[in-house]
Design goal:
Radius of gyration: 17 Å
Helix content: 40-55%
CATH superfamily: NAD(P)-binding Rossmann-like Domain
Strand content: 15-25%
Distance between the termini: 26 Å
CATH class: Alpha Beta
Largest sheet: 7 strands, parallel
Order of helices and strands: EHEHEHEHEHEHHE
Length: 236
């Protein structure tokens, strides 16, 4: 259970439905985990979720990569605290559905680009320079809309596809270093909020299982494949 002891991880979006599960899994494996957030409510919710024992290795920092200034502040904080980080996870963005492309409001389009694409660009600029150049890992959490058409949610699907392209490009750009980049494309998830509303199928993954996959199937086995699909659990 202490396979990641002495490892430091930064999880952007670590207070979200999927991100919190990844945080808990990494903490359970012995890692120290930094989670930036702007919400006091989400801080309390995450601390209660992981429990007091695991929270001893959880550092919550007020911050985000919502814009260039906040990303720069987070980078400065991390560089002051750590020489390198070992694991970076970006689980950012949100869902929006409701208009055909020819009727999408420009204000929504620009917000989705900022939240679902620019934030990932700023995450790369913030975290990749902090990764251990000999053995760092960058994990990007994406959804199945990256490869499927979603009528009435075109900007979200478009940015998901663009996120995948960013990760594939980044993987090639760091290929001569010891940094590894992984794109995880997820199906519907059994997040805590969805379960409270009675939503969830037997073959959906729990968020903690995504963290378990990261540490068990990738960190321990050093896989070379960049894109990994966790769409549905295999049926027994």
């Amino acid at each position: 259970m202490a396979a990641l002891s002495n490892k430091t991880a930064v999880v952007l979006g670590g207070t979200g439905g999927v991100g919190e599960g990844i945080v808990k899994s990494l903490l359970s494996a012995g890692a120290s985990v930094v989670v930036p957030t702007r919400s006091d409510h989400k801080i309390e919710r995450l601390q209660a979720y992981v429990g007091p024992e695991l929270a001893a290795n959880l550092l919550i920092r007020k911050g985000s990569v919502n814009n260039e200034e906040s990303a720069r502040e987070l980078a400065e904080f991390l560089s002051q605290q750590y020489k390198f980080i070992d694991i970076a996870v970006a689980s950012l963005g949100g869902w929006h559905q409701g208009y055909p492309l020819y009727g999408y409001p420009v204000s929504d389009w620009e917000r989705i680009l900022r939240d679902n694409l620019t934030s990932h660009f700023l995450a790369i600029k913030t975290l990749v320079p902090m990764l251990n150049p000999d053995s760092g890992y960058y994990f990007h959490i994406n959804g199945f809309s990256a490869e499927e058409a979603f009528p009435m949610a075109g900007p979200v699907a478009m940015t998901a596809a663009a996120q995948k392209s960013l990760m594939q490009t980044l993987a090639r750009e760091v290929d001569r270093t010891g940094i590894k980049v992984y794109e995880l494309i997820l199906g519907p998830m059994k997040t805590r909020d969805r379960l409270k509303r009675g939503h969830g199928e037997e073959d959906w993954y729990f968020p903690e299982e995504i963290g378990d996959y990261i540490r068990g199937q990738i960190l321990m086995n050093h896989q070379d494949e960049v894109v990994h699909y966790l769409l549905h659990k295999p049926r027994l």
